[in-house]
């Protein structure tokens, strides 16, 4: 079959010579340099500027269309947006990638080098933040009126360095030299109040009125990042708030010689958007997080209301027709009492009318069942920072408790459980409960997770409001995660099923019929081989480590967390090493285990696991006895742009969380889409991936959710596994020697302790044997080249369900009730 052209009509048709001229113009006029002097960074900026001309024209038309059509819009509130790099994505979405490539070529510049100049926009931590980025890509692509709202962090997630095997956190300065995509909008600055006290007043006709006298006011300055839909027609906006002091600095104090004091308020105000997730181990850190959350919610609500009022004046009756707000986790939950405050205190609506509006506006996505991740704030902290909001939260709770009493009369236990307030030594405000109570829809992020949300986390809420709890399985944008990051595979796919799959991922299904076709298998695996070579070069560059691209590339990339069980993989790697030392002829296909992971700066054991992986890697990689079989590469500073290199090159995808703990996962989808085979537990979206690809094309192992619960109930004893399984024992004991950390015995023993003495909460030892056995199946399958190629092709072919376009369509139908609004030519 010959290559098919895409039906995609791109908005912009610009020739190579026009693009070239535009880049040169910006090099001269925007950057003030010229072709002879420009380095790659300057070329990058000039190329961005050339692109941005198209982007901003798209943005203008989109905003005009939305304005003229007075569209209902979804407002995606998220503390994280892990956007990654934008140039290549924007070029792809405008269909200008090849044009730019050729244009720069003629200028003697390599586009791929230029792309490497772009710092990642890493305003997020993990899955939830990258999900938000995929979702706004889909929203723009599907012509849906949408705005992303978040925080314009000065520093995103830290930059990770590895020194002596250990993680070192360095500030990430993504915009030190300017960000060519963002536009500051001083005309839309908002003010946000903090601290102070509440005055109770009695208005006419005896109505009680509350007035909040804030102690502190900060400014929110909006920065807009255009979000280009595929095809380049629709360009939405991600609006991020930067905090600024409202009163520059105190001249009087300054003149009196108090140079530092005069700027204290400044500094405090500007700290709000300084970093993502300040360490919350201190009281000040906790406060700062709460302030961050309130800051961006308050700015965003004011912005939404300003826009609404421009079209509808003071008539609130259409507000819920126009506005829906999706709360990405509980971080923005404080928006609920804030909207109540605006409606009751400012707009002077009665409580019931205000509540009716509120509960039609908000919807909430839950991303985790881990109790420690369900946010709670001390009531006294809210009282200090947001005194009026605490009153409102109490009032919401009071009325809600009455409702609970109607359903379960006199049942204090259920009341205590559902209450927004947790009583105890310290009164706490449960943001999860507040989110469920204040929203009209609540969703989990994969079938099993949503089921567990209903059964275990919020069963009473489900009984009280049947239908409110629902599921929307996560998805990923195939534009970034296949078309842009894996151009060779994309082109091969185009030849078989046409070029429209980026908009309709189910079309990949058409590849399945070539799964047994020898020629196609060869082509498919050749692409994989090329991608492995690219990654091998990156490993060489980054770690000075040579890896064999004929080895199995076994990839585990995700936040470092015990529930994700990177240490299960580590135990198995150590076991393989041991088997090879004991028997140099031990029969295994060569393997390279490749990791990417950051640990939260305050999470000691996670950092210990990173250290252990690096120490074990160092030993193995320098042990010539095993190096034709085994290597381990921990690539530092895992981020979106690194993922884009690792994912296309993976043969095996490690998705080995304890069943019931990983809400969904999205890396699992990206890897399978690029033809990696999953080794996974029956957890999160792995289950749905298995349903799609079939049992023959995935390696499932380990305890199920029910088995995990049963084992825990019966009293799990990790020592039983230690004594029963000689390999487990040997490997754990090995950690206590100085074999991997010469001169420092016991440097890795905290992992052993967590697995034995601290109870192995995540059942690593219980699943070890099944995991090790699954890995033998992987090894066997890989040696059969045709079988493996077939599996890989089927994985790619069956990933249609996991496009974020499908997730967004589910949200549109189940939650948002939103209509698309294609951009007019105007
Ligand atoms: C503009 C437009 C709106 C559009 C938003 C976000 O509003 O219709 O929805 O931008 O794209 F008028 P401002 O925030 O610029 O006022
Ligand atoms: C969380 C969950 C993941 C889920 C993502 C997106 O990720 O299972 O896929 O959210 O819904 F844990 P983190 O933000 O915690 O990495």
Give structural notes.
- With about 850 residues, the chain is of the alpha/beta class.
- The protein has 2 domains: about 70-85 and about 120-395 and about 435-475 and about 810-815, Rossmann fold, CATH 3.40.50.2000; about 480-700 and about 765-800, Glycogen Phosphorylase B (Rossmann fold), CATH 3.40.50.2000.
- Helices cover about 45% and strands about 15% of the residues.
- It has 33 helices and 25 strands.
- The strands form 6 sheets. Strands 1, 4, 7, 8, 11, 12, 13, 14, 18 and 19 form a 10-stranded mixed sheet that branches.
- The longest helix has 30 residues, at about 40-70.
- The two termini are about 40 Å apart.
- The structure holds 2-deoxy-2-fluoro-1-O-phosphono-alpha-D-glucopyranose (2 copies).
- The site of one 2-deoxy-2-fluoro-1-O-phosphono-alpha-D-glucopyranose has 15 residues, from helix 6.
- One 2-deoxy-2-fluoro-1-O-phosphono-alpha-D-glucopyranose (GFP) binds near residues 126, 663, 665 and 684.
């Amino acid at each position: 079959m010959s290559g098919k052209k895409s039906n995609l009509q791109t908005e912009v048709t610009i020739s190579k010579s026009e693009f070239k001229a535009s880049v040169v113009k910006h090099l001269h006029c925007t950057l003030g340099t010229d072709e002879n002097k420009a380095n790659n960074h300057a070329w990058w900026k000039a190329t961005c500027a050339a692109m941005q001309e198209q982007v901003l024209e798209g943005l203008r038309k989109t905003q005009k269309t939305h304005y003229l059509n007075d569209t209902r819009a979804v407002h995606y509130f998220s503390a994280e947006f892990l956007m990654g790099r934008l140039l290549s994505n924007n070029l792809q979405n405008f269909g200008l990638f090849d044009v730019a490539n050729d244009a720069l070529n003629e200028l003697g510049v390599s586009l791929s080098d230029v792309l490497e100049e772009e710092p990642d926009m890493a305003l997020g931590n993990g899955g939830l933040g990258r999900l938000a980025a995929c979702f706004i890509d889909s929203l723009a692509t599907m012509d849906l009126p949408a705005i992303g709202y978040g925080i314009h962090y000065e520093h995103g997630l830290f930059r990770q360095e590895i020194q002596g095997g250990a993680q070192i956190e360095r500030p990430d300065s993504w915009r030190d030299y300017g960000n060519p995509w963002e536009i500051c909008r001083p005309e839309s600055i908002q003010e946000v109040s903090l601290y102070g006290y509440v005055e109770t007043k009695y208005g006419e006709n005896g109505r009680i009125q509350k007035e909040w006298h804030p102690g502190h006011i900060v400014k929110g300055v909006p920065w807009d990042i255009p979000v280009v839909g595929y095809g380049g027609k629709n360009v939405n906006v991600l609006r991020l708030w930067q905090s600024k002091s409202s009163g520059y600095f105190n001249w009087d104090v300054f003149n009196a010689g108090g140079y530092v004091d005069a700027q204290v308020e400044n500094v405090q105000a500007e700290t709000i958007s300084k970093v993502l997730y300040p360490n919350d181990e201190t009281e000040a850190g906790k406060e700062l997080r709460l302030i961050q959350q309130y800051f961006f919610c308050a700015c965003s609500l004011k912005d939404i209301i300003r826009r609404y009022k421009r079209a509808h004046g003071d008539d609130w009756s259409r507000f819920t027709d126009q506005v829906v707000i999706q709360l990405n986790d509980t971080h923005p939950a404080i928006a609920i009492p804030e909207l109540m405050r605006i409606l009751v205190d400012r707009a002077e609506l009665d409580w019931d009318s205000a509540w009716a509006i509120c509960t039609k506006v908000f919807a909430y996505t839950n991303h985790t069942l881990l109790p420690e991740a369900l946010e709670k704030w001390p009531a006294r902290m809210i009282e200090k920072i947001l005194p009026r909001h605490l009153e409102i939260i109490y009032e919401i709770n009071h009325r809600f408790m009455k409702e609970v009493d109607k359903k379960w009369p006199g049942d204090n236990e259920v009341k205590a459980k559902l209450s927004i307030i947790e009583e105890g030594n310290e009164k706490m405000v449960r943001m999860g409960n507040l989110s469920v109570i204040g929203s009209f829809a609540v969703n989990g992020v994969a079938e099993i997770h949503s089921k567990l949300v209903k059964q275990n986390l919020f069963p009473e809420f489900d009984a009280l409001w049947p239908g409110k709890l629902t599921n929307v399985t996560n998805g990923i944008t195939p534009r970034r995660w296949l078309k842009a990051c894996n151009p060779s595979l994309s082109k091969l796919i185009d030849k078989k099923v046409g070029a429209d799959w980026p908009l309709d991922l189910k079309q990949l299904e058409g590849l399945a019929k070539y799964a047994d076709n020898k020629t196609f298998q060869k082509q498919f695996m050749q692409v994989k081989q090329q991608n492995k070579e690219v990654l091998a070069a990156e490993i060489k560059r980054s770690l000075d480590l040579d890896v064999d691209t004929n080895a199995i590339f076994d990839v585990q990339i995700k936040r470092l967390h015990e529930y994700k069980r990177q240490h299960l993989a580590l135990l198995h790697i150590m076991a393989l090493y041991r088997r090879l030392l004991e028997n140099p002829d031990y029969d295994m296909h060569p393997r390279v285990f490749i990791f990417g992971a950051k640990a939260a700066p305050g999470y000691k054991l996670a950092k210990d696991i990173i250290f252990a992986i690096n120490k074990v890697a160092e030993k193995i990689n320098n042990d010539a006895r095993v190096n034709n079989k085994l290597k381990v590469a921990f690539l530092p500073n895992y981020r979106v742009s690194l993922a884009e290199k690792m994912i296309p090159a993976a043969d095996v995808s490690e998705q080995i969380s304890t069943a019931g703990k990983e809400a969904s996962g999205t890396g699992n989808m990206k890897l399978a889409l690029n033809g990696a085979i999953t080794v996974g537990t029956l957890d999160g979206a792995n289950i749905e991936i298995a349903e799609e690809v079939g049992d023959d094309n995935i390696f499932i192992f380990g305890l199920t959710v029910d088995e995990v619960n049963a084992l825990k109930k019966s009293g799990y004893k990790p020592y039983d596994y230690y004594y029963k399984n000689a390999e487990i024992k040997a490997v754990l004991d090995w950690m206590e020697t100085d074999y991997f950390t010469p001169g420092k015995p016991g440097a890795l023993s905290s992992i052993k302790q967590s697995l034995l003495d601290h109870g192995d909460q995540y059942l690593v030892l219980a699943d070890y044997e099944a995991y090790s056995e699954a890995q033998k199946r992987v090894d066997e399958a890989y040696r059969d080249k045709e079988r493996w190629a077939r599996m890989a092709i089927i994985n790619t072919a069956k990933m249609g369900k996991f496009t974020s376009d499908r997730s967004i369509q589910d949200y549109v139908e189940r939650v948002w009730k939103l209509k698309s609004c294609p951009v007019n030519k105007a």
